């Protein structure tokens, strides 16, 4: 097998820049081409990163492309991933992987038939902070995790995103857009979910864009924007997950997990780094010592400071896993179970009933310091 698998990208919007700029950090992959239904967008990204701009159909036929990254809007994730698999190529999708269990199972069947891999974001759970929390939990120092809280709340994307429309349509909203980071991290830390319950509301039926170039334009809201959910895990833990785009300010921590022997405070799962704190029984809260995990090292300006951003780690892990014949961490099974949880939350919010999960999955393998370093390209 080639030293590096050729990668093509479908969808040259906002998120594509992160993939193109961070891919060179990793071994096992080589960005070669990009495509978009808007050819001008593809040409602009191709020029920026010295790639080939191709039509979608040409990219699907390109013999130099082994994996295609699906960065389209959530509503067409399934159709695009299906086309990629049918073209005989591995696919790695942005989150959410698909919008229904049926779509995910169909893609799984198509992939298995052709011996292809499916991977999906988010890969932030591979970050140094979240793997440090994983190591703490796996060590048994907290005992069994019995409960916890997660809060991801703000006031929507219309204040900064140039085209925020899709965030407020079915397939997005805070559960399906930001929820994947939180739900996926919970699964890797605790295990699979058994059932969910939720309340869902839509306080504002339309939003006013305040970001350029469309400031002042009103957009409709067709999906719930405040959802309070309860998740019961297979291990018996019960976690509260509150997501909202109707909150101007709050004082909740992103994630707190309560064990029989202590508590761990986990930083925002939307990011790779951050400070992990914990308690040993009734002793005062203290920071876990910093460890030399490469995906916790700040490498990018964000706001007023530096942050760790290693997006594309999951894609690289999948490419290397294909070569090594092992399971990749950002797997289809993990992504589909997360979709099951999130769509279950939305169904419960509509029906007022508990919703049992239709799928399950194994926790992805931990990514310790040595394994993380093995994903990085050697510095020249």
TrEMBL record:
Keywords: Oxidoreductase. This is Gfo/Idh/MocA family oxidoreductase. The lineage of its organism: Bacteria, Pseudomonadati, Pseudomonadota, Alphaproteobacteria, Hyphomicrobiales. Signal peptide: none annotated. InterPro entries: Gfo/Idh/MocA-like_OxRdtase_N, Gfo/Idh/MocA_oxidrdct_glycsds, GFO_IDH_MocA-like_dom, NAD(P)-bd_dom_sf. The keyword Oxidoreductase applies. Residues 6-118 form the Gfo/Idh/MocA-like oxidoreductase N-terminal domain. Gene3D superfamilies: Dihydrodipicolinate Reductase, domain 2, NAD(P)-binding Rossmann-like Domain. It comes from Mesorhizobium vachelliae.
